[in-house]
Design goal:
The complex is a heterodimer. By secondary structure, chain A is an all-beta fold. Helix content of chain A is 0%, strand content 58%. Classes of the chains: A mainly beta, B mainly beta.
Chain lengths: 113, 114
């Protein structure tokens, strides 16, 4: 089955700096890669996603890149703000795997003033 | 439009007791999923309903866990009898379609088994 690895487990940046979180996946059949943000006491919220026919997608300060050959995808947050502090999860969905999300282990992002 | 709701938000029970978690998906979403996050590890898939049918229950840990979705609306997840290792956060999610469609998550139920 699919296995998703996520790094780093914790990330601390200064406000205004960029943050990058990286994930790798094992199943070449995976074709959908969402990123979720989880704030304290809340459930995961989708912030951006990318499909395998696209190499990059951007939404304001957030961007995701996908390298299908290397089987890795990354989340980029620019001009970080204190409200970006949260746990971020990457996930993958494999073709024919229903809609089952396989998650990475999460990255605790802290944006310091 | 209301989001995914879960009840209770927290539950503390003793080992051997029974607990039932409830999930109400977004109205009109045929697909309902249960996930679990144990002690800071990754969020793991438990099972997937399409309407009232179990599409995939490959993530269910053992037969102490029973999920139902009678009528294809809300779902319940019962743990009986609960063990210490069942502690964690149980998330429910729903989507209108399957196959790479956005899943919307509820706030989770935090279960602590003592």
């Amino acid at each position: 089955g699919e296995n998703v690895e996520q790094h780093p487990s914790t990330l601390s940046v200064q406000e205004g700096d960029s943050a990058v979180i990286k994930c790798t996946y094992s199943d070449s059949a995976s074709n959908y890669f969402p990123w979720y943000k989880q704030e304290l006491g809340k459930g995961p919220q989708l912030i951006i996603d990318i499909r395998s026919n696209v190499g990059e997608k951007k939404d304001q300060r957030i961007a995701v890149t996908l390298n299908k050959t290397a089987k890795h995808f990354s989340l980029h947050i620019t001009e970080t703000q204190p409200e970006d502090s949260a746990v971020y999860f990457c996930a993958a969905v494999a073709t024919g795997g229903g809609n089952k999300l396989t998650f990475g282990t999460g990255t605790q992002l802290k944006v310091e003033l | 439009e209301a989001g995914v709701t879960q009840f209770p938000s927290h539950s503390v029970i003793e080992k051997g007791q029974t607990v039932t978690l409830r999930c109400d998906p977004i109205s009109g979403h045929d697909n309902l999923y249960w996930y679990r996050r144990v002690m800071g590890k990754e969020i793991k898939f438990l099972l997937h309903f399409v309407k009232e049918s179990k599409q995939d229950e490959s993530g269910m840990p053992n037969n102490r866990f029973l999920a139902e979705r009678t009528g294809g609306t809300y779902s319940t997840l019962k743990v009986q009898p609960a063990e210490l290792e069942d502690s964690g956060v149980y998330f429910c999610a729903s989507s209108k379609h399957a196959g790479g469609e956005t899943q919307y998550f509820g706030p989770g139920t935090r279960l602590l088994v003592l």
